[in-house]
Amino acid sequence: MDVNKKQRTPFKRLLETGLTYWVRSQCKSIGSLKIIIKGLSLGFPKNEVSDINLIAKEINFKDIHFEQLNINAELIKFRLNLMNNSEGILSIEDDFKIEGRLSMSSKDINLVLSSLKWYSLKEWIISSFFNKQTIVNSQIKNNLLILQAFDSFNKKENLEEKIFSLQSKNGSLLFRDINSCCEKDFPIEDLIFIKDTYFSGDTVNFLIESRVKA
After folding, report:
1. Cβ contacts of residue 49 below 8 Å, gap of 6+?
2. Lowest mean pLDDT segment, chosen from 24-28, 77-81, 173-177
3. Which has more pLDDT, 67 or 11?
4. Mean pLDDT confidence for 153-174
5. What's the pLDDT at 154?
6. Residue 212 · residue 100 · CB < 8 Å
């Protein structure tokens, strides 16, 4: 059934609260979060959000750090937990598609590179572009990604520095060493499709499509 104007405002507030709780439960931490619901259809037991915008800052999602997210989602099916909300006000019923922009600073990238959970990422960078260093540090400058690899963080022994452009290629992220022209596709989850990538100031931005598991 459609919701008239008098019913929509309080229910949207309830729904925004539920979605906020659900989004935060999927992340380790979020600095700020704003959810804007544009399309809503109610029916029991079927409830749907047909258009939603999510804006968040300082996100830690599974030890992947983002400075900012700006994401749109369509057709989110949910169930209200009005009688028992121990798992939150609502539950997401089905997988759904999202698209939008993810932004990362040098700080975010370095936090990921130092994470034990993403040790394989650091190993991939070292094996793809460097020799036998153990530490990698990043810097974003002049619309390029600068990576430094060395044996000892304090002494910076055997320091190597490489400068990369980042591009999207068939949905994957392409690292291109601008000096040697060596290129490597970064292995990304099948559920994530990178449409484009670009730099702005001291951040790198990814335009993505993905499917979120319920």
Report:
1. 15, 19, 37, 39, 40, 41, 73, 75, 76, 78
2. 77-81
3. 67
4. 85
5. 59
6. no
